[in-house]
From TrEMBL:
Compositional bias per record (Basic and acidic residues), positions renumbered to this chain: 1-13, 300-309
GO molecular function: mRNA binding
Organism the protein comes from: Timema cristinae (Walking stick)
Cell compartment(s), UniProt: Nucleus
Name of the protein in question: THO complex subunit 5
Membrane-spanning residues: none
GO cellular component: THO complex part of transcription export complex
Entry keyword set: Nucleus
InterPro entries xrefs: THO_Thoc5
Acidic residues biased stretches: 310-319
Family recorded in the similarity comment: Belongs to the THOC5 family.
Positions of region (Disordered): 1-25, 300-332
Gene Ontology biological process terms in this record: mRNA export from nucleus
Length: 693
């Protein structure tokens, strides 16, 4: 039946097609339309016009109807009657139509979801655009604030120029330049007039400097001419020295030193000959002094007598001769006599005087201890200018001037290991107790004399086979030049350090005029309480223990303490200056007393301040340029005072502490990073700014 119904419907369709083909010439063509797109547009418009709540109720109702029909179809199938088949088909059709309704509702919901998402994306883009505009405005505000701050903190270059006082200006400047009728009532015109007067004075000084430079060059040419003339005399001097050897005075009969023992004579020849040869090319004078008569008397005595084999006269096993000799002397007198014999010095002394171009000099006096077989030296300074201040005088003390001239050579004990046994045998103290009386037995002194206690002969001394080391000319020749150069450099450095300490001891931290522009402006902090410390006093401070444990400081260093203060803040500075200053940097240990006690162990900012002083000191050397050793310590103290100012000003800017100190230095951020670093680094930009590392 379904097939016949389909056939009956197709028959008239074919007829219509046939008639249509015959009348095609009279019917107009309908333009092609995209039905699918039309349906989509219609449903999209319908989804916008319909109420979602009503569609929701319709969806639920359709679902309930489908569920009911499915139950009815199941029930009809269980009956299996002829009438139920038609009802099942009818319910299937209705259920299918309900599925069509569900599909349409689903499409409408998809349209609504798509519309909602598009709307949400559009709104999100608009919000992002507004947020970006807000961020741009905030950035511009911050930039404008920084520019305003920079303008407010700007300091002109003329503020760094130290002008003469107003009284001196009116007194010295001509009336055409000073113009009292205008400048006394107008501060700006007064400032311009003072700057113009400063420029005129500097032009005059520049012309004078050029004139003096020309005179200096002329004098230099004259000196060079005289040096060339002196160099031409060298061959003649060599011929004279070949005819009259320098050491002949020690070997010839009837002259001083003719009866000197072999070891002493070799020592005197070694020191005198090698240093005198070097003195021809340097500002150095070599001479020999002493009692000639006493030197002749030494010929009849036993200078090589072994003190260690003498025993106490009170023992019964001593010989009769020793008993008779000591019968009239007490025990203390005998010990004193033995001490004098053991510490006996040779009557002749070699003096080496080293002079600098500025007139300062040092005299080294070499003494030979005949029974201890070591050489000692005593120093004496000859200064052109008088030194004031206890700390400065302590730096140039004769016993400390040459301490640590070479590494680990402090001269606190005798380099001859046999001396300790000799002194202990007589019940005497260690050799260091007699240094003030005999001189300092530095290792370099032994090498200048040709004595090498670190060589192969040391084993013989330890075994007791020998108690002396024979002097060698090769050892002396290899050491004299380097030692004399080191002594000259030490003298220059110590005099420069003495001048700086003398300035700092008076509380003045003033750099030379030509170096002031390389460092920050004048600090608001002040220096006071400069005093000398001993090694034991330095160790007693708890916050110095890390430096002591790590051996960053030692007994041979020079220790000072001082206080850098600003307002209620007090910074205790413990300074350790190395013996070979300025080759090795000084060590700073800081302790701040302000709103509590702060040091490197409990405050990162103080630790960074210590690192700035102890690690980045080479930056100051580069800024100071040639001759940096003459002002390095003052420059470091100037930097330390600036670091304290920055710490206090940054603390007030961040709100960590009350704003007690006004901001006088230019820095962009008071703290930066996780460690809250302070702007301790100084940059030579726009008059000088500070930043973090």
């Amino acid at each position: 039946m379904v097939k016949d119904a389909i056939t009956d419907k197709e028959a008239p369709l074919k007829k219509r097609r046939k008639t249509t083909s015959n009348a095609s010439s009279t019917i107009t063509k309908v333009p092609a339309v995209d039905i699918y797109q039309t349906v989509i547009d219609y449903e999209e418009a319908e989804a916008g016009s319909r109420d979602p709540e009503k569609d929701k109720e319709l969806f639920r109702k359709a679902c309930d109807d489908i569920r009911t029909m499915m139950d009815e179809i199941t029930e009809l199938k269980t009956k299996r009657s002829e009438d139920s088949k038609g009802e099942i088909i009818d319910r299937r059709i209705k259920a299918s139509l309900l599925f069509v309704v569900l599909k349409k509702l689903n499409r409408l919901e998809k349209f609504r979801t798509k519309t909602s998402r598009d709307t949400m994306n559009r709104v999100k883009q608009q919000v992002d655009s507004y947020h970006l505009q807000l961020q741009n405005l905030l950035y511009e505000i911050e930039h404008l604030k920084k520019e305003v701050t920079k303008c407010l903190q700007f300091k002109s270059k003329d503020e760094e120029i130290e002008l003469v006082t107003v009284e001196e200006f009116y007194k010295e400047a001509p009336a055409t330049l000073s113009r009292p009728e205008v400048t006394q009532t107008n501060p700006h015109q007064l400032k311009l007039a003072r700057l113009e007067w400063e420029l005129e004075q500097r032009k005059q000084l520049s012309a004078l400097c050029s004139k003096l430079q020309t005179a200096k060059e002329m004098v230099g040419k004259e000196i060079q001419t005289k040096k060339e003339r002196l160099d031409n005399l060298t061959p003649r001097l060599k011929s004279i020295l070949e005819v009259h050897p320098k050491g002949a005075f020690m070997k010839s009969e009837g002259e001083p030193g003719q009866c000197v023992p072999n070891v002493a004579r070799d020592f005197m020849e070694s020191v005198y000959s090698n240093t005198d040869a070097d003195s021809k090319y340097t500002l150095m004078l070599v001479s020999v002094s002493g009692d000639e008569e006493e030197a002749r008397l030494l010929k009849n005595t036993k200078n090589e007598e072994k003190i260690v084999e003498e025993s106490d006269s009170d023992q019964e096993d001593n010989s009769e001769r020793d008993k008779r000799h000591h019968r009239k002397l007490s025990r203390s007198d005998r010990l004193e006599e033995r001490k004098k014999r053991l510490l006996l010095r040779h009557p002749l002394t070699v003096h080496i005087t080293i002079k600098l171009k500025d007139g300062n000099g040092v005299q080294l006096s070499f003494h030979y201890l005949m029974n201890l077989h070591v050489v000692t030296v005593k120093t004496r300074l000859n200064l052109e200018n008088t030194v004031h201040g206890s700390s400065a005088l302590d730096l140039i003390a004769p016993s400390k001037l040459l301490s640590g001239l070479f590494a680990h050579d402090l001269g606190l004990d005798s380099p001859n290991v046999a001396n300790n046994y000799q002194l202990q045998h007589l019940g005497l103290n260690c050799f260091s107790s007699y240094i003030s009386e005999l001189g300092v037995p530095y290792i370099w002194v032994q090498r200048v004399a040709g004595l090498d206690f670190m060589g192969a002969r040391t084993a013989e001394i330890m075994d007791g086979k020998s108690d002396s080391v024979e002097p060698k000319t090769s050892v002396s020749q290899a050491s004299v030049e380097s030692v004399m150069r080191a002594v000259r450099q030490r003298l220059k450095a110590r005099i420069a350090l003495c001048k700086q300490v003398q300035t700092l001891e008076n509380g003045s931290v003033v750099l030379p005029h030509n170096q002031r522009s390389l460092f920050p402006c004048k600090s608001s902090s002040s220096l006071s309480g400069w005093q000398r410390l001993t090694w034991e006093e330095y160790q007693s401070y708890p916050h110095t223990q890390p430096f002591v444990r790590e051996e960053a400081v030692g007994r041979g260093d020079i220790f000072y303490s001082m206080v850098v203060s600003r307002g209620t803040a007090k910074l205790l500075v413990l300074l350790a200056v190395k013996c070979d200053y300025p080759c090795t940097p000084s060590v700073y240990c800081l302790h701040l007393n302000w709103n509590g006690e702060h040091h490197a162990g409990n405050n990162d900012a103080v630790r960074d301040m210590e690192r700035e002083m102890n690690v980045y000191w080479m930056e100051l050397v580069k800024d100071l340029g040639h001759g940096w050793g003459s002002s390095l310590l003052v420059a470091q103290m100037n930097k330390l005072m600036s670091c304290l100012d920055l710490y206090l000003e940054a603390a007030g800017s961040t709100g960590i502490a009350p704003a007690e100190f006004s901001r006088e230095r230019i820095f962009f951020k008071p703290v930066r990073g996780r460690n809250r670093c302070r702007p301790y680094k100084f940059l030579h930009v726009s008059g000088g700014i500070f930043t973090q590392r």
